[in-house]
Amino acid sequence: MTTMASSTATPLRALLFHTSQPPPKPSISRRFSLCHHHHIPLIIPQKTTLNFPPNRHFQLTIPCYATRSSSNRKNSGLVSVEVEDESESESFRRKLTQAVLWVMEGVYIVWLFLLPFAPGDPVWAISSDTINALVGLSLNFFFILPMTNAVVGIHAIEAPVLHPMSEGLFNFVVAWTFMFAPLLYTDFKNSRYKGSLDALWGLQMFLTNTFLIPYMAIRLNGADVSDYPRKPSQLGTVMIKGAPVVGLIGGAVCAISILWALYGRMDGDFGNLYERWNFLLSYLGSERLAYAFIWDIVLYMIFQPWLIGENLPNVAEDRLMFVKYARYIPVLGLLAYLLCLKREVVEELLE
Fold first, then answer.
1. Residue boundaries of the structural domains of the chain
2. Cα gap 206→141, rounded to integer Å
3. Which of 6, 33, 262, 265 is deepest in the core (most CB within 10 A)?
4. 40 bridge partner residues
5. Which contiguous run of DSSP H or E holds residue 58?
6. pLDDT at position 63, please?
């Protein structure tokens, strides 16, 4: 009877529930996606054949008590599992993309921070004028201080008077960076980044792609058994709950930045549109900070549709096609994603 029972047991059942003997030496691994696409590896014994066709997905239901499941499954202890077989070509492309990102990080740091060949001063020879300009731009963050002086009439601290083109460029990039926070906290691969997402985003607000490029590379790591959904921090909870508000604030500041660059401080001696455009070209060719912002804008135009595209399951189904195509539009695509998050996804991430 024992022999007959063993011969009729399926390989998957034997794999999942038979524990009396140690498993043979593993030869291949498959990735399983649990609850909101978080991955754990399943080691399949060498002599076990599941006969899955390549590059196909299958839905299974197995007992699982070690992960956070949705509310309608809490009592049953069951969780849907998606089997995904990564082909050799897919693995090669993933590793090649990682290598390109790490090379990009090295070029970004060496070219923009260390070498003297790019416009402006490198970080080791930064001038006092550049430092003063950076302090002034920081004081005019999100145009809060200029608006407080001009609109509210409070002059406890006077806003530094800088060229509106430089102020507009600075606040545009910072506001776009601000909008990336909810996207990072809802990224289903963020558990592969073992560091603090709070620190990552905080440093990104000051040094932009210096820290976002490594994150983009690390999130491409192969699935690991420790890649369970992380409990969001207090900042993460605020960003996930308030994703639409973050999107609206960031989008509004980006729009104001463009208008401010073109029409701000018209009572000052900053010239007409043609003169402001000439100043921008001169600014980009003489200041390292402005030159770096152009790099950041280009990289954000790549990373925004990339991240949104891999997190489209977070979007409400009736708005999915809109976000799918809008994600390529700078800033507006990210705003669309933040406004169209599923309520169920937000609740699951905050459990």
1. 10-85, 89-349
2. 12
3. 33
4. 32
5. strand 57-63
6. 38
Do 181 and 246 contact (CB within 8 A), yes or no?
yes
Q: What does the pLDDT look like over 258-303, one tens digit per residue?
A: 999 999 999 888 999 999 999 999 999 999 999 999 999 999 999 9
Question: pLDDT tens-digit profile of 125-154?
Answer: 999 988 999 999 999 999 999 999 988 888
Q: Phi/psi at 220 (nearest 5 deg)? A: -90, 0
**What's the whole-model pTM score?**
0.77
For the beta sheet containing 26-34, the strands, ordered from the edge strand earlier in sequence to the opposite edge, are: 38-45, 26-34, 78-84, 57-63
Query: Which pair of structure tokens corresponds to residue 234?
Result: 């207090």
What would the mean pLDDT of 207-212 be, rounded to a whole number?
89
Q: Which residues pair with 255 in a beta bridge?
A: none
165 close to 279: Cβ distance less than 8 angstroms: yes
Asked if residues 182 and 246 have their Cβ atoms less than 8 Å apart, the reply is yes
Token pair, residue 161, equals 């008077």
Amino acid at 351: E
CA gap 316, 334 in Å, rounded:
14
Residue 45, token pair as written in the block: 């014994």
